[in-house]
Amino acid sequence: MGKNARRRRRGGLDGAPASKRRKRTEWTDSPLGRAVEPAGLVLSDGTEPNKLTVEPAIFQKKLSALFRRHPNTQEAVDEFTESLKKYTDNSVRFRQALLPTSVADGADVMSRSGGLDSLMRQLLSVDYLQPSVAHLLLLRLSSYMDTEPSSHSLNTRELCQMPALIINQLRWLDHIVNGKDLCRELLEVVGVAPVEIQREIVTAIPEILDDAQHNNAALELKSLLQSNSGLMAATIDAMSSLNLSFDIEAEVLDVAMGCLGTASVADLPLVLRFIMQQVNSKSAVEIIGEVREKLDFESSFLSHPAACSTPRSSSQRPFVRLSAEVSDRFMVFDAISSSIRFKKPVADGWMKSIEAVAEQSEHKVIDLFVLFILHSLPARKKAVETLFATKVRTQLFTDELLAAAFGPHAKALSEFFPSVLSLCESLLASSSPTITSFTTSLYQHLFSTFDIYCRQEVIGTLVTHIGSGMPTEVNHALDILATLVETRRSEMDRFAVLIKGVLDYLEHLSVGQIRRLYSVLSVLAFHDVETGGSGVQDEMHTLIRKQLSHVESKYRRMGVVGAVMIIQQLGRRRETTDLSLRLTSGCSQSSSQSDSTLPPARRRQAISMLDDVMRNCSKSPDSAVLFCDEMTAAVQSLPLDHALLRHLCDETTSVFQDTFLVEVSDSLPSDLGLPVELAHGLDSSEEDSIAVNMFPLATRQDERSRERGSCLRGMAAQFRLLRVCEQILNGSLEGVDALLGAPVVMSVRDRLESERFEDLPLVKRQSVCLSLCHCLNWFRELVCAFSGEKDVDMRGKVMVRMKDITDMQTLLESCMAATPGFLPPLVTAEEVKAPVRPRRGKRLGSKGDTTVANTTNITQNVDKDSTTTEKTTGMPTVSLDLYRQYFRELDLGVFAILEYGPISRTLLDTEEHTREREELRLLPQQLSFLLHDLCHKLTTTLSQFGSRRLSGGRGKSRGRPSSGGGKDGGGKIQLFSVDELVSMTANIVGSLCEHLESTSGFFQAQLEENDGIVDMQCTHDDHAIHCTNLDLLLRSMATFFAWPPLSDPHYSEQLFTGLKSLASRIGHATGQQSASIPELAPSVHRYLQQFSDSLPSLSSAHLLAKLMVAIGKTSPSLHPLISNSCQGLLQRKWGAMGTNQQRSDALEYLIRYHVEWSEDPLEALETITGDGITDLLGEEASEESSSYPTLSSATLPCYYRALMSGLVGQMKAIPPPSKKTTPTTEECLERFHLLEVSAKVLYILVNVVKSFDRRTMLSSALKVWCMRP
């Protein structure tokens, strides 16, 4: 020992010569110096780092041994700490004590490259010193809360670094001596420190404290989070790194959940990541559901930047702030995306939470984002597509939700573009109109939101679908392309060459699809000749001329469609004002309207194309019909040049007169095999100068097509084109009004109505049927043309033509029944499948008759027992409803006839004296004809757009080509838009009410004549036609008012008009324009309730209930009244209940709304089961319930299915007890009462299964319980 001591005295600490001894400082003899310098550290005066002469571990070991051997350790520690405090009073020395130490010259230390701990860090590693040194550091931290350089000897930059340097000393210590005190002191400093220092300390807490103190720290952080939202990011980040117990974790999670609604966009990612870390398989649905409920993207993304816990400077330039906001959105989406991708319970929770949403208003933008993320995962792609399609089909996802998603969040969604595009492709294959409309909107958002590369991908995808050969995909892709061209034409111009490639696949497209494609290409190529793509123009011209001259009809049809689309674009007037040429019958456009100047070269090009296509079509009746229909649609849909229209009108008039009209003075032909006459003339003999040469043309063979009557196929189409051009050019139909009363050359009617018709040769019978078909189409076009005229004489002629139509239909049905193998001629360019004719001796609609499947929805749903007249002669009957596609479609203007009142008509004798006066009115047969067509239009058209309005307006305009694919053929031209149909229906509701009252009056008279009993057997034709009309009237109004988009603001005016017409029937003040829809609804219900006592059948009751429910959805206050109305219909005895399916649908519908809209649904269920079903149970069971006559052993399965479904729904609606709050006594009693009534109803329904152990009963119970959402 002595030798070593002498060596130390002679030399340095490491045995160096005395000449290299270190210079003594003022701190050498202090307790601090006496402790650290012998242990191997040389204190600095602040000008240079503190230096180690030994390894750090040796230094710490020696220092620890010094205090351990001291007789009074605590006293030595206190002296050391006091000396250290004085040493660090100087800011410069204190800063050096916080910075890494260096290695002294000549010292044997391995770590010479740097990375040595600071002096404070070395002292904290000594257990004896750690508590006091840590306390000293936290005290020093409070002194640096003031960042003014004047109070310290450091510059501003060094001063700002000091809090972080102090906190870093406490991070990642190998051992914590007194973690509880350290935690307490840290949190005390947090309570008084500025926000910046608070954020530093909170962020470092997981790295400072050991696991034993994490729970205590979490509780304090939870309180801090609730009181200081500015530390949200730091607090959440710290708590995500703490190891917490289950209870503390649940408390912290609740607090984090509460932050979702108030967190800024910058803080949302951290909050979401923390919450998602807590998700497991058991709590996934509950946590994700609460996240969905509280996470509001709109309010979060619109929050003020100052609310962020990491605020940005308000002096940032606008584009910098915008970039930061987009980055924030990316971070939010990334937080959700990463949790979904890497945690299966999170993905499962999101799927189940979104699937459980049952209301449209409850869906949020986050639902779409999550589904886009989930769809990018291969394992969940199919499930997401199914869920997404279901949400769209049930109208839970709307266009408004899409707009909210793509509008403010477009840039952040760019990462998910491939996923969204793939989802669009899967939806494109759906045949649902609702999904189709939504997919169109989705494609529009994709095209308008993203960059040019993404747009090219969208167009390429659509082109691929067009070439796929799948009809549904082709139709939808073409419709979407047309919508994009209509709304984004300038952006679509650059993709014209890409779309042009579809021309290579024309052979695989239908006429409607070709029409749509040519419409798109013609707009892109010819909307501006100077700037349009000349390459596309030249290629289209060449292709169409080849098609028009082709020998095959299918290629000629392609050429006709393409030529008309080009003519439409070339001849389109470029006017500054919006001139609508969408005319309904009777609407006129003044010829005095200014005509824009069309460039002569453009007009010559259009006329040349028009002459070329007319010349080629003259050789083919099919092409001629197609050209006339296509050209009519083109003229109606867009304003064309008047010079072009005049040329078209002159050419059509010349051909029509030469082909179909003859002079009355000419002798009638006698070589046709049957005698002919001038029939159906409405004018006096002096006024008659022309006649329609119908039967001769139907009998003679056309030289061009070698087919009898082939030229007549184009007569109706040519007249339609002629009268539309006349209307546009002259503003009236004066130039063609002589055709309305002109007679028709037909075979003598006596031979057709007698039984000798069957004795005629088959060829003659076919000629008669052919002439009747063409004459019927001729009359239909006449009615379409002149039904809107205001002149009384013209209206009288229209009424007579309506009677001619109904009489001729009856005659044609009898003639076709006696002419086997005859099919009506096609008067359009559609390719339709011929219906199957019933065999002789078999009544239509009998078992095994395949024609039933081809009937329209209206024919299927109207009760056969009350709407058809059975023929028992053994002759097969023919219904023209099966041949609807063979006859010309009626315009919307035809329904103006419903508004006609009684019309007086004067009949003159040969001397121009009044012979008699005839009063014309709409008879039940003509009313049935119009109502059938109205119901067909409403059912087919509204169902195609039953979900929502298409973007940019309602669907397709009248006369605008559609891609087809409907029930009536793929090439049909739509003659009206949905908006026009809805407006027209709203305007004629008053007229429908008049006819409803008149028809109901017929049954009221029967009630009075038969002592309150309606003749249920429908044995009389008069009764049957009134039953049919009543059902059709109720069905048309129910279809209109039950259309879901009618409640949209876009249709508020039409809904108000319809309801006001109904309310005015019972004296409601129609002049009160300020009356709201809910104010009108009670009057409407009182009006409809008047008809419930005179209903002839259960099907009529079903339709009336549907109409009431549609009205009730506009005013919830009517629900109890409608429930009572449904109950009254259930408690009435019906004679005619229809087929089993009709009876089941009606009863289930009435029970459903009686229960759901009752003031107490469970009480309603209890009443039906207690008063009704119990009558069928027990020893004294009866065949029919006394309180509910509609309930019998035959209808029990219907009742059982509806009651079980209602019970399940009501039980699921009982609110579960809250997990967070204790329910009150009243709430518990109310819940027990509901469960008691539910159990009672279930007990009765179980007894029903015991007494009636039918398979239908058991299957109904299983299906309801398993499938009820």
Automatic annotation (TrEMBL):
Pfam families: FancD2. InterPro entries: ARM-type_fold, FANCD2. Keywords: Isopeptide bond, Nucleus, Ubl conjugation. Residues 962-971 have a biased composition (Gly residues). Residues 1-10 have a biased composition (Basic residues). It is found in: Nucleus. Residues 1-31, 946-971 are annotated as: Disordered. The keyword Hydrolase does not apply. GO terms for molecular function: DNA polymerase binding. This is Fanconi anemia group D2 protein.
